[in-house]
Design brief:
Immunoglobulin-like, rod-shaped, disordered C terminus, alpha+beta, 4-stranded mixed beta sheet, 3 helices, 5-stranded antiparallel beta sheet, 2 domains
Length: 230
């Protein structure tokens, strides 16, 4: 009996060894697959963390960029305000301290302001009398806007711009501001604007010719709120 048991034991050991030898490749492949899956999971987690970190940094960068752009716009607006204040100061100095000997009305300056209505501009025209000895002058200004429409040269008169009859009349001894709105036709591209006063009596002929871009002021808008930092 002991010999039979030994034979059975030897046979069982052989069977077990044969099983492992026969399935060694499958076991090795299973172990390798497990390692690869664990590595892939770790890499996926690492990529997820990198994406989250990148999103935070992108948001921070966008916030900083928006803040910088808003600061630049604020600085630009303040510089424009300073220039406007200087212009106004010089304007009132010319009124309060006249030094010229020229008789009659002078076209001092013209400014255009964009409005929220497409093609509509608010104009402000300043007229002064620079002579030390001032007298009352009355007259009418003439407006022309040169540009192009449908790739063809075109000149608009005050009536074409929507100015009413008598809108350009003045009567001044010191200074006067004429204001109103101009409506450009759809598709019209302005290049320059001309303001003239015809010679009449003691009033000499006057003309102000300026590029549209030189007298145009952009529409003032409220700055957009900055994105919240994450």
């Amino acid at each position: 009996m002991s010999r039979i048991v030994k034979v059975l034991v030897v046979l069982m050991v052989g069977v077990i060894i044969g099983y492992f030898v026969g399935n060694r490749q499958d076991l090795a492949q299973s172990s390798l697959l497990t390692v690869q899956q664990e590595t892939l999971e770790r890499q996926s987690k690492a990529i997820g963390l990198l994406k989250t970190d990148l999103g935070v940094k992108d948001t921070l960068l966008a916030t900083q960029k928006a803040a910088f752009e808003q600061l630049q716009q604020t600085l630009k607006d303040q510089e424009a305000q300073v220039q406007e204040q200087k212009r106004q100061l010089a304007f009132f100095e010319r009124i309060m301290r006249p030094t010229g000997e020229q008789v009659g009305v002078v076209i001092d300056n013209l400014t255009l302001q964009e409005t929220s209505v497409p093609g509509r501009y608010h104009y402000r025209l300043a007229l002064t009398q620079p002579a030390k000895k001032r007298e009352l002058f009355r007259g009418q200004i003439q407006i022309k806007v040169e540009g192009s429409l449908a790739d063809k040269p075109k000149t608009l008169s005050g009536r074409d711009l929507g100015m009413k009859v008598g809108e350009g009349r003045y009567a001044l001894r010191y200074f006067q501001l004429l204001e109103g709105n101009w409506q450009l036709p759809a598709g019209f591209i302005p290049d320059r604007v001309s303001v003239t006063i015809a010679k009449e009596g003691r009033q000499p002929a006057q003309e102000l010719l300026a590029e549209w871009s030189e007298v145009l002021k952009p529409l003032v808008t409220q700055p957009a709120p900055l994105p919240a930092a994450q």
